[in-house]
Amino acid sequence: MIRVTKFDGKSMILNADWIQSVEETPDTVITLTNGSTILVKDSVAEVVAAFEAYKQKQFLKPASSLRKES
Fold first, then answer.
1. What is the largest CA-CA distance in the chain?
2. Helix (H) or strand (E) segment spanning residue 52
3. CA dist 15 to 19, 51, 67, Å?
4. Cα 56 from Cα 52, distance rounded (Å)
5. I need a surface site. Which of 18, 40, 53, 61 has the fewest CB within 10 A?
6. Which residues contact 33 (CB under 8 A, 6 or more apart)?
7. 62 cis-preceded (ω within 30 degrees of 0)
8. Taking all residues of the chain, what is their mean pLDDT, rounded to a whole number?
9. Cα 41 to chain centroid, rounded
10. Residue ranges covered by each domain of the chain
11. Local structure of residue 70 (DSSP, 8 states)
């Protein structure tokens, strides 16, 4: 999930796995896989950075789960 800011200043949490595309028109428009669109204040770069951070957290394992094999 990522946090984005709508034009009324309110934050919303968006399921990042549903993002199909993000474009600047010059406002940032997020298109979801179901065809819905969301207009946000955040720049494309900010949305992409939030998406990348979300994906990194999803795939990183905690250090405690890494065991040294003997």
1. 57
2. helix 44-59
3. 7, 10, 32
4. 6
5. 61
6. 18, 19, 20
7. no
8. 89
9. 14
10. 2-55
11. -
Across the strands, what pairs with 29?
Answer: 23, 39
pLDDT given at position 11? 97
Please give the single-letter amino acid code of residue 8.
D
Cα–chain center distance at 9: 18
Written as one letter, the residue type at 30 is: I
* Torsion angles phi and psi, residue 45, rounded to 5: -60, -40
- Of the candidates 47, 55, 57, the one whose C-alpha atom is nearest the C-alpha of residue 23 is 47
Q: Could you tell me which of 23, 26, 28 has the C-alpha nearest to residue 6?
A: 28
DSSP 22: E
Pull the structure tokens for residue 4. Answer: 């984005």
- Find, among 1, 40, 2, the residue nearest to 22 by Cα: 40
